[in-house]
Amino acid sequence: MTTTAALLRQARTRAGLSQRQLAQRAGTAQSVIARIERGQTSPTWETLKRLLAAAGYDLAAQLEPQVAVGSHMLDDVPRILAMTPEQRLQEVENVSKFLHQVRRV
C-alpha cells in the first residue's frame, strides 16, 4: 500500500517539479507540500486530488474485496468440496431461498 506522502512525492518527481513549483501550480504553500511528503499531515481526498492534478495526474480509487484469510467463512470449504454437484446445487438453492425470505422481512 502506498502512503499519501509517497504518492504525492512520486507524482511530483515524475512531473519533474520541485515542491515550490508544485505549490505554485496548486495555489498553496511549499511548506504544505513538504509536510504532506514527510507524513506530518494527511490531506483531504479533495486536496490530494488537487495537488496530484497540479502535477499532471488523476487520482482514481476502486473497491477490491479483501482476502478472507483466517476468516470463519473458509471453515466451510472442506464440507462444500466434499459435496456432489447435485448437493452443491441444493445448497445454493437453500441459500437463495433463505436470502429471499430475509429480504422480505
How much helical structure, as a percent, in the residues? 55-70%
Compute the gyration radius: what is it?
24 Å
**Distance N to C terminus:** 40 Å
CATH superfamily of the largest domain: lambda repressor-like DNA-binding domains
Fold and architecture overview:
The chain is mostly helical and 105 residues long. The protein folds into 2 domains: 4-54, 434 Repressor (Amino-terminal Domain), CATH 1.10.260.40; 72-104. It has 6 helices and no strands. The protein has helices at 4-14, 19-26, 30-37, 45-54, 77-81, 85-104. The mean pLDDT is 90.
Secondary structure: elements and pairs:
Blueprint: H1 4-14, H2 19-26, H3 30-37, H4 45-54, H5 77-81, H6 85-104
Task: Describe the structure in brief.
With 105 residues, the protein is mostly helical. Helix content is 59%, strand content 0%.
Features of the shown structure:
105 residues, mainly alpha, 434 Repressor (Amino-terminal Domain), 2 domains, 6 helices, elongated
